[in-house]
Amino acid sequence: MEIYKLNSSEWEIYRTLRLEALRESPQAFGDCFVESALLSDEHWKEEFENPKSFILVARDGGEPFAMAAAYQEDGEKMKHIAYVWGVYVKKAYRGKGIGKQLMESLLDEIAAIGEIEKVDLNVNASQLSAVRLYERLGFAVAGTLHKELKIGDQYFDEHVMEKFL
Question: Is 44 exposed, middle or buried (0-12, 13-18, 19+ CB in 10 A)?
Answer without folding.
Answer: middle
